[in-house]
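Table 4 source record.
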Amino acid sequence: DAPGYALYGADGEYRWRGLRVGGEVAQSSDDITGDGGAYKINAAVTHGASKLDVYLREVDGDFSNPSFRGADSELASVKAGFNGRLAFSRSLALNADGYTHELQRTEETRATTRATVDYRKRLLEMSAGLRVARHDQPASDAQGTLAIAGFTLGNRGTAGISTTWEQNLGDETVDDYPNR
């Protein structure tokens, strides 16, 4: 008798003017890995060129979905994050994003928040800002603050030259965010 596998799920979204609220839920049943569940709740608000997206996702350790792209790093975890843009004009905006990710199997938490002021005009794009990152592990913790600068000349994604620089400002370095 071959092992059995089943995956059930549902998702939905509600939109009203500049507000969007949605979510998804899934349950897997696998004779080998066991039964597990996952859910994600997200909300977004948009006003003109400004926006804010937030989400919360939890994945059980026994959840099984072969098409789930982040399966290895997302199992047995809770992750919450945001992505926002405050447009001051067509050319100038404050962009920010971040997340906190609790990995239950390794008892570690990874978190980062990045904020940049971005200027974009025709074929020129410049950005400057900060990133704060933290990695808590059972044996050690690390926290770093990085300066960020970016420059693009041309069209991003088609033909152009782009560079981004991140430099740690303190003595501690978080593994995921070295000087680059």
